Description:
Bound molecules: D-glutamic acid
CATH class of the largest domain: Alpha Beta
Strand order of the largest sheet: 4-3-1-2-9-10
CATH topology of the largest domain: Rossmann fold
Shape: globular
Amino acid sequence: MRVGIFDSGVGGLTVLKEIYDKYPDNEYVYIGDNKNSPYGEKTKEELYSYASRIIDYFIKRDIKHIVIACNTICSNVFSLLKEKYNDIVLIGVVDSTVSSFIKTNKKKVLILATTKTIESNIYENKIKEIDKNIKVYSLAAQKLVPLIENGVSVKNVLAEYLNPYKDIDSIILGCTHYKIIEKEIDKDVVIINSSDGVVVEISRYLDNCNKSSVEIYTTGDVLQFNKLCMKIMSKEGRFIDL
Length: 242
Ligand code: DGL
């Protein structure tokens, strides 16, 4: 099967990697929209337009299964996109991440995400719908994505963000970029990233074909993009003018 995957930049590569490692016998096309990155503080109109442009490209390439590997898009315009593209299978990352969290049985969770994801309250609402006794803390960690994209250490910024939260037993990484820095979190808590869960979701659709391929594109600076792309996927991406 052909699968399109996209994000604002390198973050969604963590999702592509999970899916590709498990199901290599499919054709994957990835787009990192670095030209418009970061998405984390963009308006709904902007997010809708960026996502639409990428989905339209996938449709032109006859791709009918698309993973939106971006919490910011999923938490703000997912239902609008589902309405617009009702003959395409759109798979988001929020529900699968909430499911992974619920399975941990933890009760005091910190949601770490971009400003727009936090402002949408999507994680808190979905968790409370399932169990209103879970204590949910939310933190917009807006500084992280640009640092990650630029390959700069996040150690100090991360410590500054996390230090005030003494009484938590878990952290949801509500941004696909954060999986890249997961190991730098110096806290004795369970960490749920937003890449692992989506593999279960996509497996319902995948029908391993004999063709196996991965095409990776960025709308931005390809040299910068490839530093992390090589690390995550052991493969270079190319520039695409969208
Ligand atoms: N990786 C995206 C997310 O999951 C977007 C981050 C950004 O561009 O701000 O939210």
